[in-house]
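Example 5.3 — GNAT family N-acetyltransferase
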Amino acid sequence: MLLAHSPGLIGDAGADWLAGVNELGDVAWPPAPIRTERLVLRESEARDRPAFVELLASPEVNTYLGGPRPRDELERALPAVPGRFPGGFVVELDGKMIGQVLLRRATEHRPAAVGKIDLGYLFLPRSWGSGYAAEACAAALDWLDSVLPGEPVVLATQTANTSSMRLAAKLGFAELERFHAWDADQWLGLRPPAVPSA
Ligand SMILES: CC(C)(COP(=O)(O)OP(=O)(O)OC[C@H]1O[C@@H](n2cnc3c(N)ncnc32)[C@H](O)[C@@H]1OP(=O)(O)O)[C@@H](O)C(=O)NCCC(=O)NCCS
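Solution (predicted structure tokens):
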């Protein structure tokens, strides 16, 4: 995660969240929905708005992301279709949004991460503990490998966020450095580019 809060969800009212990130690059967007064994990854739609409010207002989801936002503020400030930008995947289970996977290029970050694509993920607590985040992130990374082959991906998370640290390891991220920012110890990992098959 690039910043204290997840970027790209709030729109104008949360433009600060967009500092330090820009478009993914030269990629056709949106792709056709990506289907995994249990999930669908797709672009955000208006019907996802209540789930975005739930995600951003949840104290559990935002424990390591700067804290929850007041629900009434979110109801007012979120755009009609939140989280719609290249690299912003809504993750759907049985037709309903359960989380979000974000792939965004970092323009302001640790020096080792500037210019690289950053992976972020947020899932509703009721979906935790079933491997959905791992399944969705792996699919998003596979998609990235197919559209931008050879791209390294970075991931920053608080070291205290043990679920996120475990997920990063499962996805093949290796530690680049630890640092202190936003009043917390942070971990920066790198997923090396996939080796192209001969
Ligand atoms: C980080 C976060 C996405 C991790 O979610 P998660 O559900 O724990 O992650 P995974 O998808 O990897 O699932 C792993 C768990 O599912 C379990 N599991 C159950 N069935 C499984 C299956 N079929 N396949 C894989 N794992 C399965 C695993 O045993 C593991 O459980 P454990 O945590 O008790 O060891 C979630 O905690 C979250 O949204 N947090 C708030 C947002 C946040 O902090 N994001 C990080 C900022 S980048």
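Remark. The chain is about 20% helix and 25% strand.
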